[in-house]
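#struct-queue
[09:14] JT: dropping the first one here, sequence first, then the structure tokens:
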Amino acid sequence: MADSVLDADLLSEYYYRADPNYKDRFTVPILWDKVRNTIVSNESADIIRMFNSAFDRLTSSRANYYPLALQNEIDEINEFVYHHLNNGVYRAGFARTQSAYESAYQDVFQALDLLESRLSRRRYLVGMEVTEADWRLFPTLIRFDPVYYSLFKCNRRRLVEYPSLWRYMRDLYHHPNVAETVNFEHIKQGYWRKSERNPTGIVPLGPEIILPPLCTQETFT
């Protein structure tokens, strides 16, 4: 897809445009201000919170994924999911010692086990409607089988082996406008291309991931 802002080939060009003396890592996502020509934020937790309401006057959407009555519970589950799962898979994948890897591995599967139990009793993580907590969990789940299970050595169990989590991920995937944001080939290329974790640069062809809509019998009630 063409870059319609800076016509840049590399992410680093955005960081250097915002700060010519920038010396830190180049990470995504970034939220770019086209008027000021600078980065507003490169922290996903901040950006998702901004998009919840900051641009309401420019859109017709009034969905609120961070309702006041649920904020404490959302913050609590976000904290747990981030440390044990969102960041846990990276701590496992980038571990430099056996003990660090095993600690992160245990955190990842403790989280998956607890979330499986939680979602066996409810459709979403918090309340009766989808919230910010669900959308913060979704990217880790959608990448788990093609990347984290194998490349990051989180291989006790694939996500498809968790019935409630698998149902839940498919539910989120089939929300309006979500499926078109998911490209498994891009996910695999982004993680498996040549690196210290995969020095050959060989990208696996599998696994085959099929995410059909939920049928009536699978819908949580």
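[09:21] JT: and here's the second one, same format:
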Amino acid sequence: MIRTELCDLLNVEYPVLQGGMAWIGTAELASAVSEAGGLGIIGAGHMPPDLFRNEIHKLKERTSKPFGCNIMLMSPFVKEVMEVVIDEKVPVITTGAGNPSSYIPRLKEIGTKVIPVVASVSLAKRLVRGGIDALIAEGTESGGHVGNITTMSLLPQVVDAVDIPVIAAGGIADGRGMAAAFALGAKGVQMGTRFVLSEECIAHENYKNIVLKAKDRSTVMTGLTTGHPVRIIENQLARKYEELEFKGTSKEELEKLGAGTLRMAAIDGDVKNGSVMIGQISGMLHDIKPCKQIITDIMTETETVIKNMQSLVK
């Protein structure tokens, strides 16, 4: 059985985190992942504090196991959302789009583990000085907001640069990817796209179907000129965005074009005009399973891959 120091840190059975996906990382999905032995994560996104608190309550009704919340530090509600985290004594938070250091002292008082997502070595080094518990090194293969360094290049450099557990994210959806992450020094993995294709994920059927049909080159990166690139399925929205972006359209106009489009796709099912945030690994996913089966399969396959690798050493 594979068990790393991350399991002890987070009090979970398996070193598997579910990506904190806005509109998709709901209580239904997060509780199912936690019940299956991983760490389920509610994606706060730009959620108002009252809705965020309600989602936590829904999760607590479904599971008594550890869970986490992903906090988007650029959210207009971030201060209020952090108060909810403290009130509800959320065991773990992952963070993106900013530096959580100013919140860490109060989070530490209630025992919350703080795990930022990073896309560069320099950011990893800076955040470690703030007293975080672990890091998620996320490569550009991921869906949603991404950096520009691949997981295979980023992960070992972050591992070498810090002395806390590092979790790999981006392009990981099976045991081969998990074994590769371990080989590069990771103590666990975070998966988002794989859990989109779970029975418990509430994403619209159209959203899941377009992910099932995706190929290796089905995603594109938009927002390159804004400094905040986003990986999504190529569709009418993506083509329109790219056309305007490289015509010199202002950042404000581009943000207006993208506003609300994730919900349009994930909840309303408009996968032509909505933003289908998904990773490049979607091209190898062809089925929908319960979260428990997804985690069981990846752990079993990881053990098999590691044993096969050991057999190569004579």
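[09:30] RK: nice, looked through the second one.
[09:31] RK: DSSP finds 14 helices and eleven strands in the chain.
[09:31] JT: good to know. The chain has a mean pLDDT of 93.
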